[in-house]
Amino acid sequence: MSGEYLYAYGVIENEELTVDIDGVEQATQAYTVDHRTLSAITSDISTMEPEETDENVRSHDEVLQTIMFWNGGRTVVPMQFGMTFKNERPLKNVLRGGRRAFTHALQEMDGMVEFGVKIVVDEDTTIDREAVRESTAERLAAVSEQEARNDLFSDRLVVNRSYLVDRNERESFDSAVDRITDEYSDSVTVQYTGPWAPYNFVDIEISSQ
């Protein structure tokens, strides 16, 4: 799909890439726009205001996943959904102005991916919620670098956390989640998602132009 605007997914260390993808607004190819030591992952779209549909949000995440693991893999600093630019010039201005922050984030997140863990109490089940939280936190802290606590938006939601995990420790993290799932299988449902780009562990505020 061609378009007159640039949609940006995230930033990597300088690398020339062109990858076939199923992107935002039905984009079919992602490619890099470079400024010095940084490259933005972009695709062409036909609107400055892509609609935040489930399909578009999912495509945004999946493009980042593809880039993270494509041809050997690389570290990605994600941008929030909806970062659209009129052309390469304002995007390069963002890379220029944010170069220090992006570079620092790439160094901090080197080799890291994010996983999400939710634990939901089954209906009509009584458990010691605090004990489950403490046990889960202890086990997953041992195989992750950082955690971020997310809102408990449901009465049945006991744990809702994001974890920053070294790629080399993924099997250990998977195994820890499996053990938690097995132990509480008669009373909770464990929802395990990822790997994602490290959204919850990067804090860079930028605006599109």
From TrEMBL:
GO cellular component terms attached to this protein's record: gas vesicle
Subcellular location: Gas vesicle
InterPro entries hit by this protein: GvpL/GvpF (IPR009430)
Taxonomic superkingdom: Archaea
Pfam family, one: GvpL_GvpF
Coiled coil, from the record: none
Main location, first listed in the record: other
GO BP annotations, alphabetical order: gas vesicle organization
Keyword set, alphabetical order: Gas vesicle, Plasmid
Family stated for the protein in its record: Belongs to the gas vesicle GvpF/GvpL family.
Protein name: GvpL/GvpF family gas vesicle protein
Native source organism of the sequence: Halocatena salina
